Amino acid sequence: MNRPIASEPLSPEALEAALRAVGPERYHDLHPFHDLLHGGKLTKGQVQAWALNRYVYQAAIPRKDASLMGRCDDRELRREWLHRITDHDGFGEDKGGVERWLILTDGLGLDRDYVVSQEGALPATKFAVEAYVHFVREKPLLEAVASSLTELFAPSIHRQRIAGMLANYDFIDERVVAYFRRRLDQAPKDADFALDYVKRNARTVAEQKGALAALTFKTEVLWAQLDALHHAYVCGAIPPGAFRPE
Ligand SMILES: O=C(O)c1cc(C(=O)O)c2c(n1)C(=O)C(=O)c1cc(C(=O)O)[nH]c1-2
């Protein structure tokens, strides 16, 4: 639950504490699908399904960041936000995070064109991811920034994933987990900047409630994707047209 905000705005420190408290209650590291994934309990086909669906999220991140920049009058914020797009799409020699994700799906034996086409992704994955892009495009800028704050909680799940998947699956190697190693450096810088921005700019009770609600919304975007994976690939209710492991 979000901490209730009374009639007085929180201090920046108390707001930070309230934002950080969302993670232990709602972040997707708590989802049972992640226990299965990191604990080596999935078949290769189920891991393929996760990677192929998660590609939809990866591919949308630079679009949502471009949306955010497209509506931002603050040059300093744009300067700081810009590298998020190149982190994923690449710049010059660096082919970027989307390419590293495709190295992961290549390593799992998935056909690149099929992954990139997103044809085999679950309906709920597409809806959840697109809801995030729309949220960032349409909500107040402060809430758009706050919705990225799940990244405060990402390094710990990336560390768990690297260690768990390397230890538990013979089809996972360093090349496949390179995406997550890179995020260990990138995510904390992004999250620190976004947190500082939210603390400086969420001054009224309404703005602080909006920031907390944005972060909660984002945890739901992530949770819904894992619910869909669990339903389809653990419970076995694969929707028509979605990827079917061999
Ligand atoms: O593997 C994960 O659990 C995870 C979570 C998140 C997140 O919390 O949104 C991101 C990422 N990874 C990630 O790799 C990434 O590039 C990323 C960007 C964003 C964002 O909202 O801008 N979240 C995340």
From TrEMBL:
Pfam family, one: TENA_THI-4
Annotated catalysed reactions: 6-(2-amino-2-carboxyethyl)-7,8-dioxo-1,2,3,4,7,8-hexahydroquinoline-2,4-dicarboxylate + 3 O2 = pyrroloquinoline quinone + 2 H2O2 + 2 H2O + H(+)
Keyword flag Oxidoreductase: yes
Domain of life: Bacteria
GO biological process: pyrroloquinoline quinone biosynthetic process
Matches recorded under Gene3D superfamilies: Heme oxygenase-like (1.20.910.10)
Keywords: Oxidoreductase, PQQ biosynthesis
Protein family membership: Belongs to the PqqC family.
General function of this protein: Ring cyclization and eight-electron oxidation of 3a-(2-amino-2-carboxyethyl)-4,5-dioxo-4,5,6,7,8,9-hexahydroquinoline-7,9-dicarboxylic-acid to PQQ.
Classification via PANTHER family: 4-AMINOBENZOATE SYNTHASE, PQQC-LIKE PROTEIN
Name listed for the protein in its UniProt record: Pyrroloquinoline-quinone synthase
Organism encoding this protein: Roseiarcus fermentans
